[in-house]
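Worked Example 4.2. Consider the chain below.
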Amino acid sequence: MAQALARESLPHLPPGTYEAAHTALNAACAAYEAKFGHVFVISVKGVSPGEALDHVLTAIRSRLANDPEDERQVTAEELRRLAKGRLVELVAHAGP
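Applying the procedure from the previous section yields the following C-alpha cells:
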C-alpha cells in the first residue's frame, strides 16, 4: 500500500474553484498527512464536477476522525476504487 500511496497526489479541483476552497483543502490534507503519514486518497468517480469539492472536503473531515487502523482500511478501499477506475479507462481506450 505504501508504494501505491507514494504515487498518489491531492485530488484535482474543478477549474474556477475559489482560492478559499484550495486553502481549505490544502489545510485539511496537511492535517490528514500529519495524522496518518500519507496523502489523502479518494475516488470521485461518479461525483459531478460541481459536487467534487464538497465531496472531498466532507470525506477528509470525516476521515480525520478515524483511528489509524480504520483509516488504513478506508484508504485501501479507495486505492482499489482508483485502480479499478483507471483499468476501466485503459480498457475502454484500448479499443477492439
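The longest helix spans residues 68-94. The chain is about 70% helix and 0% strand. Compare this with Example 4.1 before moving on.
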